[in-house]
Amino acid sequence: MADTELMAKQGSASELTPAQQTFVDGITSKVGTLLDGQLPGTFQMVAYPPGFHPAVQFGASAYYNSTMLDAFNGTLEIGTNGMLTLGNQQFSTLYYNILTNATYQYSSADQKVVNDPNIANQQISVVNTATSSGFVAAYAVTPVNYPTVMGAVLKNFSADATDWSTSNISAAASKLPNAGFASLGQAIASAVQLLSPLNTILGAQSAANAELAAAMANTQKPTAANGGLPISATDYYVGWTPMPANAQIQGGLQSGSKVSIQVEASNFSSTSASLSINGKTGFSIPILDVIDIGISASSSYDWSKTTTSSSSLDMTIEYPGVTIVQIDPLPLSADYAKGWYDQSLLQSIIGGSGNADVSGFKIDPSNQYAVDKMFGKGKAFSRLKTLVVSQAPTITMVFSADQANSVTSSFKENASVDVKLFGLFSVGSFDESYSIDKVHTDTASGTVTVTFAPPEIKGTVPPEQQVCTVLGGVADYPPPS
């Protein structure tokens, strides 16, 4: 059975109380059991008040819903209530910032080759000849150094500009005389064997730079050509895959299974009550932390004035239509034409940073995007790879007979209410019209049952603005170790 994992982060809120944790564990256990084997990892309950927008596409142009995408593109943090939530920073933006702060650095062995005096002299000879022959001016080479000169030669006189092998460089140099640069062709041919170790190093660096540049460009400016998703006539969102159909999510919400939590409160005093959650007992908590019911915009149901030590409350919280939704960042393609997310690039940054034996992209440990700050369980570079959503919960409360008069006078059918559970999160608000669906008094026992119904999604609400409840999901702290 899945365990709840609430990640402690720097500057996070205080930890959950035992009662709050038990409620979270109850949801986690129920969902974990219901979806056993269907999730790609451990389910975690998530507090996300904005909710999930289940409309993937909308309108005649079938634009993608950017608000729906934001739920997957949000990084994780611990909220003010101590629960895992989605922060304001976008995963794709943080990814871009990490890449921006990565610089290519040579290993100790490669640096020794780069610093070799003989190799340095041969580079100078090639660069001077490129300048004096007019090649630098003709191909606007800048800055003027050996890597940029050879990059221009390979780009303009080779079938594969990424191939820095001796044979490919020699073949490119052989074409230079016909273009009017015979002296440069000769200089390269004379130096190519001695510079072979350096060319291997520079070739690897050039390929890595091209990969990084493509990943950054496609992240910074998504387009139709690079796999971006249209969210308006002119704007695109970074690509995600696979994109589910609207009917797939709506079908799950309408016909999916349900999970429910049972809560019993008793032994009320003016300040506290005893609590049992899914059969687990032993909690005495502040009375308003059991459940805070706002019955008007300025007042809440006053438990301290309506309960006694013999009072009781049985509550069922039911989440219908439990549905799994999963999309992933669109991977950067092998030709760099589509996608933006490059896990191998991130792995090279992690493996290279602080490692003098490896050439590649590295981030200085003092940088705000340093590896130890960004990567690993509970760190900043994170997202929900899978969301578990449901319809808004229905809450049924059975009040003991001694509370009948106060309950029936306070709770009126069709009235709007705001319900806050265990000081964790609200279900409904006055604006959303979370309403009292039914107030029923049992004539035999005298108990009063009050059913709180979630707001109806009416036809006047645009599809892209309709919202369902986020139960939680599977947290991802990429790349995998």
Overview of this protein structure:
The protein is of the alpha+beta class. Helices cover 32% and strands 23% of the residues. The chain has 16 helices and 24 strands. The protein has helices spanning 18-34, 66-72, 91-100, 108-115, 117-132, 135-138, 146-157, 166-173, 182-191, 196-220, 246-255, 287-290, 303-306, 343-352, 371-374, 404-410; strands at residues 43-45, 57-58, 63-64, 74-78, 84-90, 103-105, 229-230, 236-237, 240-241, 259-266, 272-277, 280-286, 291-294, 312-319, 323-326, 328-329, 360-362, 383-390, 394-399, 418-421, 425-427, 435-441, 448-453, 469-476. A seven-stranded antiparallel β-sheet has the order 12-11-10-14-19-23-22. Strand 4 and strand 5 (84-90) form a beta hairpin. The radius of gyration is 31 Å and the shape is elongated. The chain starts with 17 loop residues before the first helix and ends in a 5-residue tail after the last strand. Mean pLDDT is 88; it is low at 1-13 and 428-432.
Indicate the mean pLDDT.
88
Q: What shape does the CA trace take?
A: elongated
What strand order characterises the main sheet?
Answer: 12-11-10-14-19-23-22
Category from helices, strands and their pairing: alpha+beta
Number of strands: 24
Number of helices: 16
Please describe the biggest sheet, giving its number of strands, its sense, and whether it closes into a barrel. Answer: 7 strands, antiparallel
Q: List unreliable stretches of 5+ residues.
A: 1-13, 428-432
